[in-house]
Write a structure and sequence with these properties.
- The chain has helices at about 40-50, 55-75, 100-115, 130-135, 160-170, 185-200, 230-245, 260, 280-295, 310-315, 320-325, 350-365, 390-405, 410-415, 425-445; strands spanning about 5-10, 25-30, 30-35, 35, 90-95, 120-125, 150-155, 175-180, 205-210, 250-255, 300, 385, 450-455.
- It is an alpha/beta fold.
- Strand 5, helix 3 and strand 6 (about 120-125) form a beta-alpha-beta unit.
Length: about 450
């Protein structure tokens, strides 16, 4: 196994050098594109400046840190760059304005990244060149301040759609933050945003969209990695980057139902890349620790941590709009997989997110409320093969639901299997077990007549 070092440089005049240790591989990232920060950061910065938002330098550095994390996570193959086909050893060296502050934050940042990706991270920070500071414009907020009163992640999924509707219905003016993904995800973001703008034309909400371009980052001897466990670090960092320019304390809203946030393995085989920790309570707590150390006046909050997806839909502040826009949102883990059947990008209907989505819409809007096109429209039409994709997650849910009903005490212990809940009070832990139980039973409602077989 090789140990990888990812080091950022501000152009050819940045003369920082690193002496490789035995069995280390160095990959340099050029952070400049002409006279601007490159890799998509400069474009996002321009977008915010055009909206009168001037991010702080330390928040820009946070986004640069996240760029290093994203490059390492997506360019280092777990198959070839680890001994166990999973755990990689990664060191990042990031040029920042305040290395001493980042060094103080290193233990918290390492805990967050180790937990999120399952890798072993080492973090080092150095002073960036003085002229790199000039790349971050300063500005004056308009009289009366900016209209935005919160920042919210907007992925194009159903949860983020409900979160945006709930905020807009209560009169909030959010700055929505998106990260460009594949074609289906990007289309969902654009289509949902258009409907929101049509519904709330007098609200001054807007959106920042980051197009991260790492096409020029190549790691010698490694194929690209497809699991992307670290993607939420870039997503959160982009939200903080935007919020830091509001000129006041801000909240970054991360709309995610409690079942997915916990993401407890449904069965002993649902491990590794299948059990992500993107919005787990432990991870969000580490983010809030990090912001405090960096003195960024923001708080990360999941307002739906104790709600199932179905409860989110049921309690949505504008269910008429939700029903109209649901087909435009994207939940499927791999919406392009139907291309082998010559189908357009659409929901498969049988992956974990699709099953939770189908159950949620049924609970929130009734049996006829879901106008989404699913590749498998009727899960009960035939026996699903649990050795194949069509039945694998269905069988996992059936296993977990049966375990919950027959061994509820064991299910309670399993709640801790995907991450520590030590930051939560006993009362909050009880609420988390409640949302886990209700979420499983919610999915159970759509699986009552569904058959699976491994033969």
């Amino acid at each position: 196994m090789r140990r990888h070092v990812i080091a950022g440089h501000y152009g050819p005049e940045d003369t920082f050098t690193y002496t490789l240790q035995p069995n280390e591989v160095l990959t340099k990232i050029n952070l400049l594109h002409g006279s601007k920060i490159g890799l998509g950061i400069g474009a996002a910065l321009d977008d915010l400046l055009n909206q009168g938002v001037f991010p702080s330098e330390i928040a820009v550095d946070l986004l640069v840190v996240a760029t290093h994390v994203q490059a390492a996570d997506t360019r280092l193959s777990r198959d070839s760059e680890s001994q166990d086909s999973w755990t990689r050893e990664i060191k990042i060296i990031v040029p920042v304005a305040s290395p001493e502050k980042w060094q103080a934050a290193t233990p918290t940042l390492k805990r967050a990244l180790d937990f999120l990706t399952g890798d072993i991270w080492e973090l080092d920070f150095r002073a960036k060149p003085k002229d790199a500071t000039d790349l971050i414009p300063n500005g004056t907020l308009p009289l009366g301040g900016l209209a935005f009163d919160e920042v919210a992640l907007f992925s194009g999924g159903l949860d983020s759609l409900i979160g945006a509707i709930d905020s807009l219905e209560t009169g909030k003016t959010p700055l929505l933050v998106s990260h460009a993904g594949d074609g289906a995800t990007s289309s969902a973001q654009e289509n949902c945003l258009l409907e929101l703008r049509n519904q709330y034309p007098k609200n001054g909400f807007n959106r920042l969209r980051l197009w991260m371009d790492l096409s020029g980052v190549k790691v010698l001897g490694s194929e690209r990695e497809t699991t992307t466990r670290g993607r939420s670090f870039l997503f959160f960092a982009t939200g903080i980057f935007a919020g830091s320019g509001l000129g006041k304390d801000f909240t970054l809203r991360v709309p995610e139902n409690g079942l997915i946030a916990l993401n407890v393995p449904l069965d002993p085989l649902r491990l590794g890349s299948h059990s992500t920790r993107t919005t787990h309570p432990f991870y969000i707590s580490r983010w809030n620790e990090l912001l405090e150390i960096l003195e960024i006046p923001g708080t990360v909050r999941n307002p739906y941590w104790n709600k199932t997806k179905g409860e989110m839909a049921l309690e949505c502040a504008n269910k008429v709009l939700l029903e109209k826009v649901i087909p435009l949102s994207s939940s499927c883990s791999s919406p392009t997989k139907g291309r082998w059947q010559k189908l357009p990008a659409q929901h498969c209907g049988h992956c974990l997110p699709c099953l939770i989505r189908r159950a949620a819409v049924r609970k929130g809007l009734g049996e006829t409320g879901d106008k989404t096109t699913y590749t498998i429209e009727d899960l009960s039409k035939k026996t699903l093969d649990s050795n194949e994709a069509e039945g694998r997650q269905v069988r996992s849910f059936q296993f977990a639901i049966n375990r919950l009903s027959t061994k509820p005490r064991l299910a309670k212990l399993i709640l801790h299997s995907n991450g520590s809940l030590s930051d939560q009070s006993p009362e909050e832990q009880e609420e988390l077990f409640g949302v886990y139980s209700r979420g499983l039973l919610e999915v159970g409602e759509i699986l009552k007549n569904v058959r699976t077989s491994s033969e």
